[in-house]
Write a structure and sequence with these properties.
Mean pLDDT: 95
Radius of gyration: 14 Å
CATH class: Alpha Beta
Shape: globular
GO molecular function: glycosyltransferase activity
Number of domains: 1
Order of helices and strands: EEHHEEEEEEH
Distance between the termini: 28 Å
Strand content: 35-45%
Keywords: Glycosyltransferase, Transferase
CATH superfamily: START domain
Protein name: Orotate phosphoribosyltransferase
Largest sheet: 8 strands, antiparallel
Helix content: 10-25%
Number of strands: 8
Length: 130
């Protein structure tokens, strides 16, 4: 299952945005309002939980400065990655898009497609808060 967020413009240079997205503490600012838990559990990992959803542990999988940050599920139960692609627009602004790629059975994909789509859209829209 592949889902994309809309492209969002952030008033930060691409390297600054990259640095923020490679700092796991920054993701707390990106979370939706219905966040129930956010806990940093290492330099490259955090756990978050939304109300009514199971907690998910994300780990930094790949960093390609200044254009790409890949987070992935730390558990094999729900294998997925969340890729942030950053592009420079001007010296003081850049664009970012999130791509969610998960390997789920058709029933699970059908159940989570709506909530995950809304979640990555919220993360992208909240990039301006960084």
């Amino acid at each position: 299952m592949n889902l994309e967020s809309p492209m969002v413009t952030v008033q930060k240079p691409e390297l600054e945005l990259f640095d923020l997205l490679t700092d796991v503490t920054s993701y707390e600012k990106l979370m939706p309002d219905n966040i129930a838990k956010f806990e940093v559990i290492g330099a490259d990992a955090f756990i978050f939980g939304l109300k009514g959803m199971p907690e998910i542990k994300l780990k930094m999988k790949e960093k390609v400065a200044p254009n790409k940050v890949v987070l992935g599920a730390a558990s094999d139960k729900l294998p997925f990655t969340l890729v942030a692609t950053i592009a420079s627009i001007t010296a003081d602004s850049s664009s970012v898009k999130l791509d969610f790629e998960g390997d789920f059975n058709p029933m699970m994909a059908m159940m989570i497609k709506g909530p995950i789509s809304k979640f990555i859209e919220t993360l992208a829209n909240n990039m301006t808060k960084l």
